[in-house]
Amino acid sequence: MKCADDIDVREVEENFINIDPIQAAGRLTADAMKAIIAYGDGYSVCDNCLKPFRLDYIKKPPLAAFHADLASWLEMAEARVVPGARRGFQAVAQTYVDKGDPVILSSLGHYTEFIAVEQAGGEPFEVPKEESGIIRQDAVAETIENAAKKSGKTPVLMFMDHVDYQYGNLHDIRAIAKIAHQYDIPVLCNGAYTVGTMPVSGKDLGVDFIVGSGHKSMASPAPSGVIAATDERAGEVFRTTKAKGNVTGRTFGIKEVEMMGCTLMGATVMGMMASFPHVKERVKHWDKEIENASFVLEALLSIDGTTVVSEYPRRHTLTRINTLESFDIVARTHKKRGFFLSKELKKRGITGVIPGSTRVWKYNTYGINRTQAEHVAGAFREIAEENGLEVR
Ligand SMILES: *Cc1c(COP(=O)(O)O)cnc(C)c1O
Prior knowledge:
Blueprint: E1 2-4, E2 7-8, E3 17-18, H1 30-38, H2 63-73, E4 78-82, H3 85-96, E5 102-106, H4 111-120, E6 123-127, H5 137-151, E7 157-161, H6 173-182, E8 187-190, H7 202-205, E9 209-213, H8 214-217, E10 225-229, H9 231-237, H10 267-282, H11 286-301, E11 307-308, E12 318-322, H12 327-333, H13 339-347, E13 350-351, E14 360-364, H14 370-386
Parallel strand pairs: 3-13, 5-6, 5-7, 7-8, 8-9
Antiparallel strand pairs: 1-2, 4-10, 9-10, 11-12, 12-14
Helix pairs in contact: 1-10, 3-4, 5-6, 11-14
The chain binds pyridoxal-5'-phosphate (PLP).
């Protein structure tokens, strides 16, 4: 089936259980699908944009209320929608970082945080992880001291990943932020893997900013995301333009500099908004997600030689495992080499494991139900058994 001439329809979520690390929690709800069709035309949400002409003031469709809901849901003062978490990082970096300024990041931090710092001319200082793959507050204090010594300035900003993309480990943001605040360093909590999947409260975490990814964790189309700020910081990152045309003398009202005036003006924000009630509900059932993730992991660990690289027991559905001594042994002699695993999974209706990977790899069980978790668990065990691996 085709969408157009040479564009095939995508039939992944319809036909498979998808355990792709980055796709699992961005899968659309049916309501989002309806909304993106209804609001697919260009600047569709601007039909009723009235003075003062800004996205977050539009009442019909209820974008103003959506912005207020996003902020209160994250227990922060203000929120804006952005085209991806990365644009939230960019807005904050552009606000606080000048050339040569030291910036603290996690050694498990995402590349988009580093690029945001680079764009602003800052110098990154990474907080080393413990061997277990956890960022501890002692290492944070030490990194701040080292950065200050090395650059002669106190770091101006800290990015810290709530759940990192490498291990899916949950880091103690509250304790880490406390340390940073002793040095008056604003803290951005990167919730790309947490906002929209598990409960997140900016107040509890004690951070200045929370950034989330719509297309990764809020059942939304790409590119979408959210940035929320405390009252104190909102005035800084959401400052309004002071630009003035030198010929025309024009000024530009209350358009926000870091938001380039308006951000998501059509299908993206409408998809996000349509999914939002479902997202608010689903984070309340995080315990079920962890149960399913653990169920699948236990099946993998029952295959002799398999170890989990992520923290254990699991506190997130994104998990990194090591199958060098199990599936990779099979791959060494299999005629399909490492591709046997993804092929066998596909045969059983499971997708999202990178074709060819049998060594150290990640998967994400977010959003699958118990029956599907049982099927995935059974599939791994069956594939192992069929290929001569010991399954306990
Ligand atoms: C995916 C990811 C991002 C990027 O999110 P976008 O919304 O695509 O910009 C940033 N940080 C982490 C930890 C991620 O996993």
